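Risk register update: the risk that structure generation would not scale has been downgraded. Supporting records follow, first protein first.
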Amino acid sequence: MGKRDNRVAYMNPIAMARSRGPIQSSGPTIQDYLNRPRPTWEEQLGKKKKGSKALAEFEEKMNENWKKELEKHREKLLSGSESSSKKRQRKKKKRRNLKKKAASSSPDSP
């Protein structure tokens, strides 16, 4: 008695898929996606310039607040610099007076 042939023929899955033909897809294809209408460069730039009104208002308000804060700070520094120079002069006078008093009250002075 001869042996039974139990070999199975190898089937190439890619070749089998091609023999069935193209598959029916339910959604858009890659070609549809690539061929879609797109806005031009000028239209894109126009959209960026517009922006949102709320954001523009917020930025405007923040700029105004920042300007006011800078003005206050400048005034404070300018007025503070004048008074600080006067304070320095007063301190110098006090030091001179203290040195004179200390020198006149010391026992080694003639």
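Supporting record for the second protein:
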Amino acid sequence: MNVRQMWKAKLEGLAVPRAGGRRASAAAAASFAGDSGRPSPLSRTAFEGQVLGIDPSLRGTGLAVIEFSAGRPPLLLHCRTVAIPQRVPMPEALARIHRAVSEALDGRSVQHVAVEQSIYVQNFQTAQILGSARGAAIAAAALRELPIFEYGPTRIKRAIVGTGRASKEQMQRMVMSLVGHGRTLAPDEADAAGAALCHAFTYRGEQ
């Protein structure tokens, strides 16, 4: 089994092999089985409750609320892409992002918020726009006094797919298999769900 299959099997409560045909597979199997001398990520999932994942962008912010409970796969409660046309002025776009995050939190028991970090931006103007979108999204959660955690894309890919070089398509497929969602998630929604999954898989108390 490869790493992705191991994640899926573990989440579904199935047995995970202790050894594989290749050294990498064996090491991964040992890690999942707890033979590495430290608890496996899922045995420590430690986190139970609802996480709001956010993939911020001025014109296409992704949102996903996932519930984590012991003994069952993650449950996707809500997902949305906040699509904002180019003709909408920036102040109004920021207001829509803030409002969408607030609506995602309304009526739910979200305990933590996980935000995908921006590692690379093309220029100062792009960084400024993206930073404004991030601020609008984070402010909506901060006003609820929710803990906010940030994760880089490489860390999220490693937690979900098993490699930091996974493609967006691989991420989409793996996220959908983990949450058992019936429809194809949009790229921004999958990224937001990936941030939430990464948080639940790697959270170890106060960070």
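The chain has one domain: 49-202. On this basis the risk owner (M.S.) recommends closing the item.
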